[in-house]
Amino acid sequence: MSKMKLTLGYMAALLLFTACTQDEAGTLPDGTQPLKLTAAIGGEVATRTTADGTWEEEDAITLSIDANTYTYQYEGTDWTSSAPYFWQEGDAVIFVSAYSFGGKASGDYAVQADQQTGDGYQSSDLLYAPEVEVTYGEEAELTFYHQTAKVVVNIKKEGIMAENPAHDVAIQGVLSGTFTAPTDEETYGTWTNLTESSSITPQSITPANSEYAASYQALLIPQTIGDAFISITIDDKTYRYTPETGTTLQPGHVYTYNITVFSYGLDVQVSESIDWNATNPGSGNLTLKDHYDQATNTYYVYTAEGLDDWATKARTDLTVSCILMDDIDYNNKEWTAIGDPGNQYAGTFDGGGHTIRNIKIKDEAQNNGLFGYIAGGGTVKNLTVKNASMTTSGTKYGIIAAWNDGTIENCVVSSCRITGSSDYVGCISYQNFGRISCCRVDDANVSCGSFGGIVWLNNGRIEASSFQGHINADGGALVDINGITGGTIIACWTDATHQEGKTVAGIVRYLYGGSVTACYYGGDIGTGILEDRTGTGDATKVGGSSFWTWKEAAYLMNNELGSDFGWHWQTDNEYTPPTLVEVDN
């Protein structure tokens, strides 16, 4: 991440507190000394890494010290102030933060519609240095972070642009909003009240390499971007790029769009980075930073180390949330479950559509998984766990959670490997008293005592979920036991094989209570429900003597889910199990 450092002491970009005599500084109040701000130079470039990469002469920043403000101006080598801060004798500690608006000491929290001419691009840059505690006469460090997002557009020398025609580029975004500074040591503030949507003319820049015919950059307030985010006009024809619904620009990040313009439309490659001044942004080599948002009690995690940091916090604060910002390779390290019967996880773990791969669940006596217990208010969603391994020697195992009283939704367990002789094992969860929705297990290979493809024991609700894999255990390809105290299974399917000599049901082995509705199974399993004590089990074989097809199964499951469910099963092949597709209601 690009940043600018101001350090108290004789170091790069430093705030230097120097005692001055009356002869050096003129007549000063008794018992005071001034705060002198200087900026050292690193190589040929000043330590500020702003929109244009340097501090310019007469650039200004505002220091906030104990709720009072002081303006300092850069004079090429030194920082000066007509009204500097003076230490008062006996002041042991001060709290210092700072900000700058495109090289100015004040601003209106706005970016410019015209960033091509004048200082429109530079003046759109907002820098903030989080507050630090400074002890009298000692060194401290301020680090400035960009509070806007940077967008880089590279147009490739391919397609129409191979001939280098005249063109215009525009970027759609809001121009103003309310900025609230971060607290404590947080990196980024928050933006609200975004208004004045407009077309932004980006700044033309020298292309980073010879592959590009032209390159542009613009600074934007962090926001959710929508229709026609990037427009390229060539010979009076406009080509527009619209990102996926819900795509959001984060503060301090660089979003690079490498675009090829064809006569029929745009080919767009997108990358995200926090290297503000990367010489070739968009290369795909991302350096990402984990950080914690105290205001929302949420970790934003890019790395395995960041995941560990969240887990350490979650073991003492079971409400702390996590959002994955990138795929994570856990490199087969061992993972200890979060939460136990007396300390259940009550936060939200949002995978953000990303994957945790190569994770080894630690073999404890019981309650093993990514989570031991998920409380009634806890949620795990939008997560894929791939190549997870689990050796079972105790009881009560699940890849996502041992016990779920909350919500597990839109989660995938892919290519998991479970070995051991234990009973009470499920790929998603051992026991469910909450809700499991739109979850999938694929390419599972399981060898244990008793097993359920989604859960071992269900007393909650399971809907629109599926299992595929090989089972070397007694159990149910979806659920082993359903409904001791009630349990609902709706519109689910399995397509599994089983080891010879093992007793496996296609949907539920023991239906002791609750209900199974509109569920289907394939593979080599011959029985949908092995033992039905309630008479409310609806599990149908696909193929076999019934001659039901997967296409018909998908249709009937969707009828049961209803048109307002938000997801539906889809297949165009009678012989292929359906996939779950999100629909726009």
Walk me through the structure.
The chain has 585 residues and is mainly β. It has 3 helices and 54 strands. The longest helix is centred in the C-terminal third of the chain and has 12 residues, at 550-561.
Shape: globular
Strand content: over 45%
Helicity range of the residues? Answer: under 10%
Main β-sheet: number of strands, strand sense, barrel status?
Answer: 10 strands, parallel, barrel
Query: Total number of helical segments?
Result: 3
**C-alpha Rg, in Å?**
30 Å
Give the rounded overall mean pLDDT.
83
State the separation between the terminal residues, measured CA to CA: 39 Å
Sequence of strands across the biggest β-sheet? 31-35-40-43-46-50-47-44-41-36
Please state the oligomeric state of the protein chains shown: single chain
Secondary structural class: mainly beta
Count of beta strands: 54
Task: List the uncertain runs.
Answer: 1-31, 37-53, 278-288
